[in-house]
Fold each of these.
Amino acid sequence: MLASATAVDSAVFVFGAMIILGGAFGVVLSRNPVHAALMLVATLFGVAVLFIEQQANFLAAVQVIVYAGAIVVLFLFVIMFLGVDRLENLAEEPLPAQRPLAAAMAVLGLAGLVALGVEGRWSVGAHQVVGAARGQSGGDVEALGRAVFTTYLFPFEATAALLVIAVVGAVVLARRPSGRMPGPSEAGGEPAGAQPSPLPVGEGEDSSSGGPGELEVEEVAR
Amino acid sequence: MTELFAAAGHLAIPRISYLSIMPVLILLGGGVGLLGISALWPRQLPPSAGTAVGVLVAAAALVASLVQWVDVSNHGPHVAIAGAVVQDGFSVLISMLVSISVLLALFVSDTWLKRERVGGPELQVLMLVSASGAVIMGEANDLIVVFLGLEIMSIALYVLAAFNARRQESGEAGLKYFVLGSFSSAVFVYGIALVYGATGTSNLPQIADYLARNVLLHQGLLLAGVALLLVGFAFKVAAVPFHLWTPDVYQGAPTPVTGFMAAIAKAGGFAALLRVFVSSFGLLRSDWQPAVWLVAVLTLVLGSVVALVQRDVKRMLAYSSINHAGFVLLGLQAATARGVEAAAYYLFTYSFMVVGSFAVITLVAGPGDAAHDLENYRGLSRRSPWLALSLTVLLLSQAGVPFTTGFLAKLEVVSAAVGAGSDALAVIAMVSAAIAAFFYLRVVFTMYSGAPATAGAHVDGGGGMPAELPRPSGALLLAADVSVAQAPTAVSVLGEQGTGQPIPSGAVVAISLCVAVTVLFGVWPAPLTSFAHLARLIIQ
Amino acid sequence: MTHDNAFPFLTVLVLLPAGAALVTALVPDGIDERLRRLAVHVLGLGASLATLALAVTVAARYRAGNGGFRLVTDHIWAPQLGISWHLGVDGISLFLVLMAAVLFPLVMLVGGWSGDKAATAWLLLLEAACLGSFVALDLILFFLFFELTLVPVYFLINGWGFANRSYAAIKFFLYTFLGSAFLLVGIVAVAFIHEHQTGHLTFDLVALSSTRLGTASQVILFLAFTVAFAVKAPVFPFHTWSPDAYAEAPTGGAVVLAAVMAKMGTYGIIRFDLTLFPRAVVDLAPLLLTLGVVGILYGAIVACATRDLKRLVAYSSLAHLGFVVLGTFALTTQGVTGGVVQMVNHGLIIAVLFIVIGWIYERRGTWSTSGLRGLQRPAPVLAGVFTVAMMAALGLPGLNGFVGEFLVLLGTFLTHRWWAVVATFGVVLAALYLLWAYQQAFHSEPDEQTAAVPDLTWRQGALVLPLVLIIVFLGIYPKPVLDRITPSVQRLVEHVDQATGTHEPAVARGTTVSHTTKGSRILVTAQHDTVGP
Amino acid sequence: MIHAAFLMFLLPLAGFVVLALSGRRLGDPLAGWVGTATVTGSFVVACITAAGLLGMPGPARHFDQTLFTWIPVGGLNVKAALLVDPLSMTMALFVTGVSALIHLYSIGYMKGDRDYPKFFLYMNLFVASMLLLVLGDNLLFTFVGWEGVGVCSYWLVAFWFGRPSAASAGKKAFLYNRLADVGFLVAIFLVFERTGTLQYQGIFAHVSSIDPASRTAICLLLFAAAAGKSAQLPLFPWLADAMEGPTPVSALIHAATMVTAGVYLMCRINPILGLSHPAQLVVASVGVATAFVAATIGCAQQDIKKVLAYSTVSQLGYMFLAVGTGAYEAAIFLMVAHAFFKAELFLGAGSVIHGLDDEQDLKRMGNLRRWMPLTFATFIFGWLAIAGIPPLAGFWAKGDVLDNAYVRFPALWFVGLVTAALTAYYMSRLSALAFWGDDRWRDVLKARPGQHGQGAEPHDAPRVMAVPLVVLAVLSFVGGVLLLPWHPGWAPLSWLGPVFGARLYDAHLSGTSLWVLGLVDTVVALGGLGVALPLWSAQAHRPELEPAVLQRSYFLDDIYDAVIGRPGQALARFSAVVVDNRIIDGAVNGVGRLARLSGTGLRRVQTGFVRQYALGIVIGAVGLLAFMVARAWS
Amino acid sequence: MSVPGGWYLALAAILFSVGAVGLLVRRNVLVMFMCIELMLNAANLTLVTFSRMLDDIGGQALVFFVLVVAAAEVVVGLGLVVAIFRRRENATADDLHILKG
């Protein structure tokens, strides 16, 4: 089937797939979380490549910018910040039967999905419900923009709520607890007297790094 | 839809029917507004103020839902905003349920916040925003909107679960919830992708329409997507075997949050689940019904059986909530209008029971929110009789004792199941209810027994002595009306006599309301059942 | 079915004790203890006596006629669910209502809990639920009341019971609750089949009785219903909660459990099984008859080996309810009527037995026959009361127990000869264990402790006197009762006959036989060939 | 005046009620007089009623008095009604008469008893029940009386309940009767099933429509009941134990009246019985077998009352023999005569016992004729009567029975004859031991401080006790002589004709045969007497003549205990401990435990490790996926 | 003629599985998060593939929203990690098991 595609397309697909899978296995198999993060970047990049290959140029850009640029950086930041970058001994698995079962499940699930694909046992849906993806005058960016502001207007607005929560959540979580953190056995006790000072909370729309940013200041001050 | 694209280059923004999303807007706007107020407030915003604003917001959302209801009654159900949301009886019922739940939960958390002194209005904000997510799920008419609602609700809940930074359990609960929640979200998204691929759209009516018009040569893709969607939903509503997070999270989360979570997450999850499966995948019901049947059985049995051996009351109620999820699944499995109605009714009544129960648990837990062992409930009837009585009513209602809403809810779902020919499932459900009754009764019994029971003195020939008198000190039936009627004075009545500490009025209001609804509509079911009867999906 | 009256007697009958329960619970705790106890006492007793008066009024207004339901009230209660507040009495329920109404005031007084706020409120609530289940003509309404009884009883056992009370209470609750699980599903299924046929969702018994059900579904539904009823009654082998519950329950609780609540099970069988599933009833009659007979013999045999008086009475109760089952599934006028009469009689008898045993316990601190000796010497009146109840229990003619047992056995003999013959031996066994226990507890010379036991006080005597008188009266002159029960039973039996195409033996109905005081009658001998197993 | 019939049983019942309400206040002896008066009144009413009946023409001597409808259900319509006919009136007359005498006797006998009023309470109730039994106009009403006398017997046997043996004996009596009553009940069912009525007249009107097998079944079932009540094989062991009751009770209930109820019942159903030859044979055989067996046992008993008890059993056997041979009138004759002389014997024995401070052992009596002349004198009549010495009542009655047996079943006649010899033997033995020989009672009285004081000597009974003794002695003598058919116009027994029907009883014997048979009877009786009297007045201890097998009544009690009692107890224990506790309750608790166990097991899945939870989700997801994909595949 | 969609879909399925397995076998919470990102990417790839196969821009729009959700999740998730592991040395997911049973 690959042969029926043009050589370039095939090459790009194979290249992208290799990066993606290599990165993915890298994430899973890296003992060092930092390495894992970097491997993740590879995967994300590979996905972006395949996006482009499928004429999703805008998404490819967003993929690289948001994912690789922001999210992975955030990961790295937290890894460094918490100092949890110790090596993980992948050879041992404290939970019995975890790995064999995981492998078995993966094989089973994958077998199902892939078998469906290879057998061609799936019918795909109707064409062009929201709007054509190809051959648009303004390219995929305009098509996507049109879709987002018409058909997907409400979801688009709803993402605002999502971001608000992200911000508030990060703030709440990052705030230092005012009292001790009792273990389960001595849970309870008197609430500490001092009230935590409320963090200044901006009404930022998308400042996804706001929370940790504040945190950094505090931690450093300590 | 095509007319949108008629004029190339000109963007035809769809008309926004603000009424359709009014509850969402109110909850969301209220949350953000509260955030703003607290930021602008010169000092720490007192919890009462946060509660007040939150309650107002919730009440406004409730009013908005009522307006929606009038609208639906007058003009019939309709879709809005480019078909992304739907306004029908079912969605209105869900948004009312969510509004009321968040209102009650705010009352409860007010008490908790004051006692634990864990800071500002973020709790209320998160609750409001989370509630908005649940409302979105209820009115979502597109898989992606479902997903977004689910995420809005869940992400807020992750944070809420971890809200009490002083308790390790809270953090652990939050993280576990988050890891597993995101994992299930990923599965869910993958499911969306497959369904999208199989049908070419993510819009629910369009999916139904596509399935109605086309005979799929191979259903593999579609059914795989359906399975994965089911996994995502089942996770949210804590159906076995996707329930594993539930006990840990319920136990670890701050108690008011647990109540809130139990009510909201179930409501939102089931709302979307019912809509997606019954209206979009209705034609596939013969395919997914057996799966749901199995899941429901597992859920019913496991929920009741494992709860038997719990000593932590919160954890026990977590398992009980799993059991309840099984009951709601009966409504889904029926996949009929009656089933949807029954499920809606069940969710509606359950939210009162569960919020009320956790309100009492919040109070009993005491400072530090840690006293959740069954032993902590021993003799509660003496320390604060009305509290014990209220919990008794709520637990009995959960057990399905007659003349409570809990019974009618079970009756409704069982009716739906039987009506759809799932008699065996109905029987299993009722048997599980009987098992469940045991652990509810155990709590009740513990509350009403003073000293450790005189064990071993079995009457093998009249050797037994008449029991010392740990006697229930009130009549169950009355609790509701009494506590409502006496709400102003109830503060002192409810007061823990041992400590002389009055119970905050917030919790009193919440508990009274929950008990009142549970009993009132148990005795006089007509209004609520008629109301639930309106919970119709736009397409079935 | 006629709406005889504008005044809703039955609704008031149910709501009066419920309302009194509410008021009782609202008696404030703050006031002076004596005043509070007095208020509670007056409330509890007053309400139960008022209920009794109302029940007597109902009975007085009841006209047997064709045996249909009387004093019917029918209001829609939950329209979406098809539930209606449909109440009515016929001959079958009338006397159960009366019996319950008679016993509750007594229970208020004998428990040692008069003046206790919680106990009184629970009891009143229980009374409402018991009466409700006897007069409910809507299946869900019945189920509601049927289940509602569990809660007060649970609390009464748990709060006021004896050493092992919590085990007994929870066992009772769970067991019966579990049984009800099947009942609920069965009820709903019937209603849906009816809806499927008529397009009308209703749980109304009268409406549902016209539902056409296939044999297979009848059998399944019958079993679902009957399991719940069998647990409640209890019918062998679903009885093991009862010895525990009866033994651990306080005196009044045991009285209500055994005398009133047990009847809800057998009443349910008669009222619902026979009405809704006639074919299954006929087909499965041998099974149920066998269970009844086994219950009769087994209860008696186990009772023989029991030294605990309360448990002994529990097992005897199993045997007695076996008679009710037997009579019911005999499906003859005599059998079913006998079953109904037996229910009432057993209620009265076992009430006296439990009350007296409670008094024995008060006096001697035990109810084990091995711990008692020679009670008759110091307490002859107490012994006398016990003797009367015991004699009634073992079916001595002239006391009420005999009428029911005789009718049951006779009615059974007409259709299922050998079951009746075997069951008749249960009568012997009843004498065996009762007399044996009596001899243990009451005969011989008393030891020192027992010799000092006081006899019944005047108050106690006055409490049981009405019951003893009723026991004697019903034994001598049961006609007023039988005249009201029989038409309703005949109606029911006719319903079964019509639905299944079977025929009650001509002898039982007595319609085809000309009848004179001289007893000259014409019998078609050919009919006898169809009789018997 | 015949309409006053209901007063017959209402009077004792009223006595019962009065005594129940105020017996304690009346006290000793007023309560006794109240009891006696009501029964005497009852006797008077009986006489009046009988006179009324006699006033009617022979075949129409039948009067039905309906009091009220008792159990009306569908086709069943049982009335509380009395049937006054010659048979029932015969019974009623002698029941009330003997009862009145025994009540009178009891006033003296029971003097000083703790529960004096209660005794008369029970006695009155007994008389009322007995009259109900006799007068009932339908099977069920008869059954009421039947059970009523049973329960009164229970109370009276266990009257001295302080003695465990008395309490047990009462229970035993009741249980044996109860067991037998199963037959009665089933017979009632069968009768109703076949005829649709329980009224005697109605049943008899339809006798012909009852199939023969059912007829036999009905008869045998009723005979089973009768065998219990009348202590026939194999149900007689209770009667000997019943002697634990006060002696007047033994005299009234266990000799004169209640135990004869079985005979009465069989006579009552004679229209059915007469049509069933198998049943007749069974009745006769069982009767004669019982007569013989009981007589042999009677030969070896030491307890004076037990000898009398077995003799009662034996005599009842004769009565059944008569019933079985169709000689109902003979049965009734013997019953009445037996009532007189056996009551006499019991009361005499009671007098002896009374005089010896409650000593009942024959071996500790002796030579009492010296000390209790009146008792002795009256006792002689009873003794000779039962022994069959002419011209006392026993001779005629027994002769009548044997004559009929001779005609119908010669083999049975022979057994009956042997029994007659035994009867004479054991009664003479008793008399010899009690009234002749040495004063063996001296050490007994010395050892026991009784009401007579240490070392006191036995003496005759007080006057209230003496009067009945004398009256009954006279009746034992006269009863037989007067009833003889002295001339055709004087045939008191023929008035039973309408009840039994002439066709059923016809001896077919010539005058000569009658004389010969009578002679044989006399010789046999004298033989028994002649052997026993010298033998036992000389020496009280003759172990060789009292084998254990007879002393212990053929070990029947032990056999029952081994065959029924102990296995029964084991079964009960097994049912209670193993079946109920372990299996049924165990299953219930096991289900509970299973739920708990599975709960405990399943909670182990909840390890707290988030990765394992994820694995759970994956497994579930893969499972669902596999299920769905599999559906798509197929 | 480009590569057939099936290949992309299979690739996405493999990626999804690898992510899932990673979540199951890794103890480091952050790496677990990364695995979730892998799974989300697999979903995105699927969506884009379908978008191309169906010539429908809707699929790409969905990807857009998934991206936003992923971002929000990561923020909160990392916030949680920070809150919990701030004072712990080298904590792993396995160390969190106070709550169990």
Amino acid sequence: MKFGVLQFPGSCDEVDALLAARRVGEAELIWHGERDLRGADAIVVPGGFSYGDYLRAGAIARFAPAMEAVIEFAESGGLVLGICNGFQVLCEARLLPGALLPNANLRFTFRQVELEVARPDTSFTSACARAAGTADETPVRLSIPAKHSWGRYHAEERTLDELEERGQVLLRYAPGQNFNGSLRDIAGVCNARGNVFGLMPHPEHAVDALTGSTDGLRIFESMRLTVEGAHV
Amino acid sequence: MSERPATADAPAGTEGEAEPPPTLADALTLGLTGAEYELICAKQGGPPNQVELAMYSLLWSEHCAYKHSKKLLRTLPTEGPHVVMGPGENAGAVDVGGGLVCAFKVESHNHPSAVEPFQGAATGVGGILRDIFAIGARPIAVLDSLRFGEPSGTRSRYLLDGAVAGIGHYGNSIGVPTVGGEVYFEAPYEQNCLVNAMALGLCPRERLVRSAAAGVGNLLVLFGASTGRDGIGGASVLASAELGDDEDKRPTVQVGDPFEEKKLLECSLELLQRGLVVALQDLGAAGLTSSAAEMASKGGVGIDIDVAKVPLREPDLEPFEVMVSESQERMLCVVTPRDLEQVLDLCEKWEVGGAAIGTVTETGRLHVYDGERLVGDMPVSALVDDCPLYDLAPAKPSEPIYPPPAATLAMDATPLQALLALLASPNIASRRPLFEQYDAIVQSRTVRRPEQADAAVLALPDSSALAVSIDCNGRRVAADPYRGTIEAALECAANLACVGAEPLGTTNNLNFGNPEKPHIAWQLTEAVRGLGEACRALEAPIVGGNVSLYNEGAAGPIYPTPVVGMVGRLPDAARAGRLGFAREGNAIALVGWDPQRGAPSLAASELAKLRGEPLPDGLPPFDVQRVIATQEAVRAAVRVGELSSAHDIAEGGLAVALAECCLANGLGARVELDALTRAPSADALGDDTPAGADRPNPSLPLPILFAEYPGRFLLSGPRAALEALAPQTSVEIVGVVTGAALEIALAGETLVATLAELAEAHRALAALFP
Amino acid sequence: MRARVLIRPKAGILDPQGEAVQRALPALGFTGVENVHIGRLVELDVADAGQLEEMCEKLLANPLVEDYEIQLPGS
Amino acid sequence: MRARVLIRPKAGILDPQGEAVQRALPALGFTGVENVHIGRLVELDVADAGQLEEMCEKLLANPLVEDYEIQLPGS
Ligand SMILES: Nc1ncnc2c1ncn2[C@@H]1O[C@H](COP(=O)(O)OP(=O)(O)O)[C@@H](O)[C@H]1O
Ligand SMILES: [Mg+2]
């Protein structure tokens, strides 16, 4: 399977995402000015400060030609993962509900955070599930770094209720870990169809024991399973 | 092409509509001395015009010409087996194996940060990053070295807050991790904060590029941001005079744009990768003036520049303003006429401005045109090489320069109280509230983040790793500039040893007061002597650095602060050491403790500071070779991979180091230190409170717990692995990793502090970042 | 024509910046200040003021979380 | 009384945000837009409007890099 990783002027974590994706499949960078997604099976909109994050994080990047292609790709059911700034871009592009606002602590914050997998049965989280037959009912936890200044997830109460009812909240900050003030501790949400997912923490920075944890790899692994399952 | 312009040639004032020509008085205002002005007139064959005087005044400033430090800098060791590029280029570089070199340098942005801490610190990071990619290396890490007055002062807190946010803003946005740094709070920095930033970069050895302009007829391309009035009369002039209270003199603040720099960085590296540039140079202090003159000087050529071709942000800049503007995020390169189109196309791809603004000539002169009009004409050698260098007149002060610090801890505090006060001291408390504002992991290379180990560790492609540390305890340098500076270098090397790295090279930033004063000249001379000796002994030559002088105001000079940054290498990234105790039941060893050394001294220690003791006149001597041998033993042991932790003993001494080892992973320790009192000179052990002071007789010998001196480490691991160090250095097994408290038994008493108590104290800085 | 757009957080959305300012004021000796809100100010020269509304909807503001107000000279 | 403070980058000071927005607009089909500057908008209830100036100098604006304009109802 092949990942396409978008690259905007001001992307910072695109190479990290590329390297992470290459641990489970092929991966290639796609320049923001291109409309051709080069046959990618899944798209990663990476972290960083696209267009310097000026105005609002992600506001300008969403209009890049490559994003038009990504919107079409998503509408046709393709898997799209937005990480950090990528999550912001997907919200700005209305591929995901809600918005990301400045952290409640008003500072850029880098912290290893504990996440709870609220839905271990989706296209983006299936590899997080506990082995079948395990008695443990508590949510699976992932240790993944987060680093951002605009990470406070916000949506209207009604929208939040809907998201929860429909199982679109895939990741939550574990108790005590929600430093940015996200409503209902939401760390990652997907769209109604389940093929577009955005999260603030950085799974691509948790793919190697040498540099921290390997928990983030499971997100990429889940996407591979989904794509390859679909191909079977 | 170049007839002499009327303005430069004729006696001042003969050209009809020109503004009145500058005079000696103007030269003095710009910071030149009368004698320097005379010399400029002689070099020019007459009084310089406005453009020329502006350019001379910058290039002949302390900041650019190193008038008071160059002679000293020449005494530093700059060569060694790993050195690929020494001082003189935008950054130095060392070979790190696998065909790669590591470029690195530290630079100060002290005065701009004192004016506007956020932008000052941000543009400081921007500037040092440009120095790294100017030699062709991709920046891979930033470290910061900060000094402020005591955080009880609102202004110090404002400066701290702004500087940290500014560093984070720039580094985070451009995608370079900030992996380490240091911060100290001391009263002498109240009026003059220090903001130094160090950056590292990586590049294939053959892609290193120099800044010497070459090839007569080649073109000069200015690319990046457009030019505005930023910092006119800024850093260069500012950095050469004491910062008074005169708020009106504040120059236009330079604003940094990391997004622009990100594009500039990618554009520069792609230009190099495609072989399109002959020479590359960043624009820093003194802007175009300095870059063009340096490039011409290094290449032994002349340069013609047309300021009318420089893309401007504001329409009405005068030629001299264009030449001295310090607008950020700009680079200058030399390209062949054939490649010009490709170069400009690449600029367009990366959405950065680019314009051919000049040519390389054989004249050896710098000609500044405004369209057709020649508005400045100077010999390059006069601009760059002929500024007079001054001899210092060092004299050791007979009186103490610095008042004693304000006491915050009673003399009769118990050892437990002292330990908690030290952990909560702004100089020792956890730096987490600062470094959490920095992205330490972007680029996926960071093997050790802040507080995981004594040095930051960055993986290299071949499974080895770089390690880097930056350090300087200004209070100890103030007590003894020579030994204090050696200690700073040894401390860096100790940090590297703790992760298993051996030093490859060193950079430094000499932050001092006014060198024209004999006692500052003495501090500077002694510090450079110590730095040179230490780097020779460590075989870690100086490959670059920076000097920031005149850091003083009405309240006196800063502590002398020769910030040392050191880069090392370890063969196996996976075995990089960690600082915290990691396994219940591990033995704890004190390594490098010297029983022959006599009484450990509390002089100039953090405890002495808290107790308000005056700085001593001199630090106790130590054996540099012995310290280095201990470092080698620790390094070797860490590399074997059997140790659980390695931490060097620094500020706060042994007890604080123990607490830090416990706090890292929340593991307690039981320690017994009586062995340390059995030394031959044990009778000399005792409180070294100055005679006459109130002697409270604490039951535990405070010096054993809290004295500071180089060469000691705390290791944990299997007992056998620790004892294996014994042939190379002294090893004292002092305890075991266990429980949820730190218990230290000494002289019949036991100090007990729960981990919760220690952690609470250690969190003290959090209050500064509500 | 010089236009001005005022963009403010929608009512009911937490405005930590506004709160931080409000908390900081008393310490500086300013009393009787309430209801502080912080938003964005965009000023620009436009040839066609009719485009401003769309510009706000599409780019300058995020209508999900922000309200905007367009001010034109003489209005 | 509800007061409004407009805070904008000082003339001549680099305004990277404004530049980024200006560069983005043409691609979205908005033409003829120039001189885009982005600043901050502070709105607050004050008991004593006489304090506003000092509030701006001390806290709301950074006078080194920003200009501010105080607007009061009816002014
Ligand atoms: N303290 C120092 N030790 C060694 N080299 C130094 C020191 N200070 C400055 N240098 C060297 O002098 C040269 C000029 O420095 P600087 O003016 O800061 O360069 P730049 O303008 O590129 O920042 C550089 O090569 C720098 O490494
Ligand atoms: Mg340089």
